[in-house]
Amino acid sequence: MPVSNEDIAEIFESMATLLEMKGDTVFKIRAYQRAARTIGHLSFSLEQAVGEGVDLKKIPDIGKAISEKTQEYLETGRIRAYDELVGELPDGVLTLMTIPGIGPKSAMTISQELGISTIEGIEKAIHDGSLAALPRMGRRTAQNILRHLQTVGAKNGRTPIGPALAVAEETVDTLRAECPFIEQLYPAGSLRRWEETIGDIDLVGVAPEDQQAKVGDVLASLPAIQEVLVHGPKKTSVVLEEGIQVDLRLGDAASFGAMLQYFSGSQQHNIRLRDFANRKGYSLNEYGITNLSTGDASHFPDEESFYGFLGLPYIAPELRLGFNELEVAQANALPNLVTVSDLKGDLHLHSEWSDSRDPIERMVEAAVEQGYHYMALTDHSSGRGIANGLSNERLVEQIGILRDLQSSYPITILCGSEVDIRADGTLDYPDELLAELDVVVASVHSAMGQDSDTMTRRIIRAMEHPSVTIIGHASTRLLSRRQPVEFDIEALLRAARETGTAMEVNSAPERMDLKDTHAHRARELGVPLAINTDSHHYTSLGQRRFGVGIARRAWCESRHILNTLPLDRFLAYIRAPKPHRLEIFDSRDDVPAATPTLPSPLVSP
Q1: Residue from 436, 358, 359, 424 nearest 395 by CA
Q2: Model confidence over 237-249: pLDDT tens digits?
Q3: 255-330 to CATH, choices 1.10.1040.10, 3.30.200.20, 3.30.210.10, 3.30.70.2740
Q4: Which tens digit of pLDDT belongs to each residue from 408-426?
Q5: Which CATH number fits domain 159-251: 3.30.460.10, 3.40.50.720, 2.60.40.10, 2.30.40.10?
Q6: Residues 6+ apart with CB under 8 A from 348
Q7: What is the DSSP string of 500-567?
Q8: Helix (H/G/I), strand (E/B), else coil: 374
Q9: CATH domain 5-87 topology
Q10: Which residue ranges make up each domain of the chain?
Q11: Which of 562, 559, 547, 521 is nearest to 604 (CA)?
Q12: Does residue 22 register a pLDDT over 80?
């Protein structure tokens, strides 16, 4: 069975945790954390790279020791050093660390002092007071741990970005309405970087100093607040009924750029940026940049001037992974990232004819409201019985209706379908009916338990069909609800390029599929990416920003995205035989030379 980059990253992250429990040096702990982070964000398969004889030490953050342990894991499925670390720990200590609110040191203390090794044991210790009695624990911490167990469980303490962003934006809107004197207020942290999941919601803002306490008062008094953790003039932290923690920090306008940058992270990016600044003779913090020789401090109202002081161009939050963005920035080679306004159409929309709640006309109107030039209606095929999939006869009827509607709307309406890829890789509709469609999104909705080789062959067979335009939500995952299917992503992407098939970046916040690392590799291979919303309601077309966020994390410019093509070029693309579509996509002349742009600090790119 293939070993994924995520598997390797997870074991090194675990080794960092085990070393922290042992009290090992911070340098060694960070080395494993950096390696885990780097491997987790590689766009290519580390296992394949080793098989091809690539020297892993040439990859940033992978030195001799990490390289040797990686090869040991790939060859044997184990790392002896990891097994030895586990053997030195009390039973159950790793289980305790899956509970939000319990870190490495707390887990060791709980295990050693109370002999607890299970989640059930933690709950009992909270109720009988023994957990709160431990040093540096206390009643409030114990109750917070219980709250986490009751709300988000012991999965990983993180919330999918969809509900988290909704909470963040509602909170920001409420604070702005109640405190109109707020000058700036934006989500930061993993939300601003468009991570798939978030831990806490970080809000940073600017308000007059004599009014800052009022903003904290308003946040602490919101009806949805379950608990107030910190309440002060500069910082207020609360826990909402959903179990999500919101941290609000306020500062002054002159230093806002440094504060926004600092709390946007990522941690690894900030560590590397700090080291970069140190080599130039400066130190960084959330207030500004200090000259180490003179002690003089410089302050920055925005992030552009903050990075500029260090001799760097603005680095978009989505790129701040702590991988190679600083080196690329120094070479002035950062991408001009795709934006929401670059999209010219949505190629995956549903109506009440299958499993949407809205009529065709409302979905067309919603596309017009987005400013799109074209759209494709792609109701489900007949194989999706539970989704009221269209029979052959109903699809023919719908095609006729769509063509009749064209004259009534200022948008090109394309006839499409989301067609099931059957277990053997064949498609739901006969070839002659598929050939009548403008856009075919082929997706897996069944037999998801197939092994990697079978699933890979299945999807590639669908790609080879001359009528398939796009592979929809390839991994089929649902964040926090359904694991992705198993497949060889490298083989899929190479086949997509060879067959002239686009890959979808599904913007539905519960899917976000392709994920960023897969989209990154698709871009590298020259695979056209289509950012679609898979909307089942007219209001969902606005969710395109989630797909754009993924594409930006994948370093995509508009030229990498199929549905940024202007209408005439897009129609030429879909009307060309598949072997010739890449010629149109690769030679597009509608995109000017890349010039990095500075987006707003708002969550939306």
Answers
A1: 436
A2: 998 877 788 999 9
A3: 3.30.210.10
A4: 999 999 999 999 999 999 9
A5: 3.30.460.10
A6: 376, 378, 416, 418, 441, 470, 472, 504, 506, 530, 532, 533, 534, 535
A7: T-EEEEE--TTT-BS-HHHHHHHHHHT--EEEE--BSSGGGGGGHHHHHHHHHHTT-BGGGBGGGS-H
A8: strand
A9: DNA polymerase; domain 1 (1.10.150)
A10: 5-87, 93-151, 159-251, 255-330, 340-586
A11: 547
A12: no
Identity of residue 373: H
Distance CA 108, CA 117 (A): 10
pLDDT digits (tens, 9 = 90+) for 531-558: 999 999 999 999 999 999 999 999 999 9
* Measured distance CA(498)–CA(415) in Å, rounded: 25
Report CA-CA distances (Å) from 288 to 85, 187, 315, 487: 40, 19, 17, 46
Topology (CATH) of 93-151: DNA polymerase; domain 1 (1.10.150)
pTM of the predicted protein model? 0.81
Angle at 249 between CA 247 and CA 254, to 5 degrees: 155
Q: E strand or H helix at 407, and its extent?
A: none
What are residue 116's phi and psi, to 5 degrees? Answer: -90, 140
